[in-house]
Amino acid sequence: MSPPEHKQQLGFFQYSHGTEVYQKSRPIYIEHDAGFNLQKHAWIELNEDQAQANNEDEKEAFAKVRIIQELPNDKLLVEYEDYVKEEEVPKEKVFMMNPPKFDHVEDMADLLYMHEAAVVNNLKQRYQQKDIYTYSGLFLVAINPYRSLPIYSSEIIRSYRRKRRGELPPHIYAIADNAFNDMLHDRQDQSILITGESGAGKTENTKIVIQYLASIAGNGSNGFVAGCENKLEEQILQANPILESFGNAQTIRNNNSSRFGKFIRIAFSRNGDIRGALIEWYLLETSRVHTPSADERNYHIFYQLLNATPEIKKLLKIDGKCPADYLYTKKSNHTIQGVDDASEYQKLVRSMKIMGFSDQEQMDYFRTVIAVLSLGNIIVKGNSNHVEISHHYEEACEYLGVNPVSFKNNLLEPHLRAGHEWVKQRRRLEQVKDNLDALAKVLYERNFSKLVSRINTAIGSHPAFIDELGDAANNRFIGVLDIAGFEIFDNNGFEQLCINYTNEKLQDFFNQNMFILEKEEYKRENITCDASLDYRNDLQPTIKLIESTSNPIGILSCLEDECVTQGTDERLLSKISDQNKSNPRYKRDHFNEGFTVKHYAGAVKYTTSGWVERGKDPLNEHVARLFAESENPHIAALFQDYAPEEPTTPQPSSRMPSKTRSMSRLRKGAGNFHTVGHKHKTQLKDLMTTLHKTHPHFVRCILPNNRKRPGEIHPFLVLHQLRCNGVLEGIRICRVGYPNRVPFAQFCEEYKLLLTDEAATITDPRQKCEFLLSQSQLLKSQFQIGRTKVFFKSGVLGQLEEERDVRLSDIVTKIQAGCRGLISRKKVQERQSLDKLIRIIQRNSRQYIEMTESKLWKVYHRRKELQLAFGGENADKKRIEDLEQVLAASQEELRQLYSEMEEQTKKEQLLEEKNQTLEHEMHSVKKLSDEQAMMLSKMHKEMQEESVEYENLMSQCDDLYRENTQLQEQIVELENDKSISEEIQQELDIREEQNVKLQQDVDEKDKLIAELQAALKEKDEALIIETSEKQKALKQSAFLEREKEQLRSVIVDTLTESKQRLKTLESVLNK
């Protein structure tokens, strides 16, 4: 994929949004501007009934209208463009439409009118053209495309390297590159905050940012190298399947929703080379462990282990088990369409092996997960006097490595100190259930925490290392925050309050940062601003309502008090209402047992049912201490903070039994009782402390539709998310000040039509702008002139656009009047010329009629007719004679052609006969050659057999020769001894005769082989001669065949031509 093709437009660099931005100059007029009236075209906000008139999933938030008339009582008469009807609507529901030249704008801060309708319309236009990224001031808005787009290749990465914002189309790469450059240039830590709803693409954009940073900085050269495999990127990507298995789950809107927040810090050296990385996690949704929704799933790891290989399931003792066998997974979705849990388990194991997890470590984490499921299967029965649990607790204790009897006793009847004695306290049925759920949540959360720490160890990083790099003068980091966005459901509980509280703090962090940047720019441009422009504390009332610890105390503090004092949900609601009844952001709901909080994204209703028990997170410390003494080292390490301290000095003997003494050991720090809300607030405080030390960059992810279809966008859903993730809040605070800023040169160029002739002598752009604004109808409070730019209040530029349109309309009207006058004059001239021609034609026609009525003309015309008749007869005779001559010549030519054709036919027959003879000879030669080949093969075979026999005879001859030699030696010896017998002499004679015969046979075979070789040589020569003759015959046959084809074509062409001539002659004769 090549880098993005972008139309080159002239522009300039200016300082905006806290960095240097390339500002493209906009065209003053474009083709589809025709017919647009800035004063009449507008958007109107649809109410709930009108929005539901369409498909529920495709609700339109705004409709196009045309303003017909302005009515009293701040109302307007408008006509709907789509519904063709008129309606009276209040002015506050009508939003002016931006001119077409602002369509598909890359930065929505440049819009003439910045309001909800313009933002939604611009995002919709860009998304339908596959532009999923759009700037909105400090924000980058990213819409999930639900398909793969070719915008993340190596060439694209290279094209965005060292580019200022605005030089290329909006992209997540541009945000990452700006963060990297700011870190190197300013020597300041950077952060990229990626938020959004579930399924909006937060995790994918986080991966893309890490990929870009690793590509440009991880190769040790602070520059991109194509094809360079970076170890950090590979490690982070391999860690992702592990985190997704343990921390992701299926929700209504997303099949792979991240249910925890993570902050990935990547440390760099002073040269921009990566030094290490660290993953920090926040706000794990532990309540999902024991209460998943019917339309959702629990964490992926539960289903992956239940679909693991038979060997692993046997080791985990879950062979034959399925999600329906466990209460924590029974009522949830067991499968996800298009997802294979077995293959996902294989990916998980592969990633854990690459990250260096041993087989024992893998089994430790897996057994802990199965232990959580086993805790969920424990059924609690009984009444107020006696409580019992099912036998499943023995299975859970086996996984946890604890004594089942001790587990049961500590769960049902823990020992408590009463003065100097220890007594048993019976737990109620609800308390035992809550304790089991709390154990499951804490066990899963601690297992997840240890897993993340193990991943950090695998990628060579730990908190001390990152802190050392962050404090060093020459080392910085870039942090990528992936956290859930603002949530508004039909039923909002404690989890939604924590998530919305987090987003309220993050939005306040954005407001503070934006105010600082705006203040710096106003100071740089010498713009005066009053207290009305200070929006830093706009969200503080809501934040104090939630987190305040002083009078009046906030919601979390009230919850913590009720958790410590064993309060109830009713007392909690009353206490919150009493403390915050004067807060305008708070309102009690008497019918829903809850309250309403006014957030920046809107009012959210919360129900307080179950908050006290959920806030306490009632962990049974007796069971936790039992886990700390587990025989399973992994479980004991998870609850190390509950382990008893070893005594440093010998303790005096006590009358207490050893069992009782072991119970008296308290957990380290047990005196500090902290609720879930306090833990959440502490984690959020640490995160905000880290973020305040960085220079932030903001990315907001948008879910385009609930059906997960590519190219489909639902405006009503997008508008809801823009309100929740702070984009519209950012536009609101932007409109508080001077959102529209135009450099002097661009302002003079765009609005030069408003200048009078007096401004022709002004050359300074600043003075020209001052003169132009003084001639306009704008109030001085609506704009300010800086050192390089003109600052306007929101919507003020629309008035200048209207004045320019009026001026342009006057100029166009004058041009039209001149053009129409010229056209009319030309039409008059054409009419006069036509009248003159008509008169000439009329005069000539009258003269012709008078001449034809005279007698002299009639006599002349009659004589002319007679001459033509006599001359015609002679001409016909001559034409017939000529045709007869042509016919005779053609017949003669035809006869010649027929004779030539007969000769050609004879030649063709001769060639046919010759060809047949050659084919017959070729067949005979082929047959003879086949016979000769068979004979040759037979002769070769016989020669091989004879040679084999010859070799055998020669070997026998050699053997006989050797025997003869031996016998002769024996004869000599015998003759010397004079003791030879007659039998031996006879045997020697026989052997001598055999030797002679064998010698004769050998000679005969030699002769036969020589004769065969001579015959074979003759046959080879004859075959070569016959083959050459055969090839000559074939060549001759091919030549004759080509000649035959040529003759045929000549004959056919001749016959065709002759037939055409005959047809021509026949037609002539017929005439």
Per-chain topology:
Layout: E1 11-16, E2 19-24, E3 41-45, H1 48-51, E4 62-71, E5 75-80, E6 86-90, E7 94-96, H2 116-128, E8 133-136, E9 139-143, H3 154-160, H4 172-186, E10 190-196, H5 202-217, H6 231-247, E11 248-249, E12 257-258, E13 261-268, E14 274-282, H7 300-305, H8 310-315, H9 327-330, H10 341-354, H11 359-376, E15 380-382, E16 387-389, H12 392-400, H13 404-412, E17 415-418, E18 421-424, H14 429-458, H15 463-471, E19 476-484, H16 494-525, H17 540-547, H18 555-564, H19 569-580, E20 586-589, E21 594-599, E22 602-607, H20 611-616, H21 621-628, H22 633-638, H23 658-663, H24 676-692, E23 695-702, H25 715-724, H26 727-736, E24 740-743, H27 744-750, H28 765-775, E25 783-785, E26 789-792, H29 796-852, H30 855-977, H31 982-1070
Parallel strand pairs: 9-23, 10-19, 10-23
Antiparallel strand pairs: 1-2, 3-4, 3-7, 4-5, 5-6, 8-9, 11-12, 13-14, 13-19, 15-16, 17-18, 20-21, 21-22, 24-26, 25-26
Helix pairs in contact: 4-5, 5-6, 6-10, 6-14, 11-12, 11-14, 16-17, 16-24, 18-19, 18-24, 27-28, 30-31
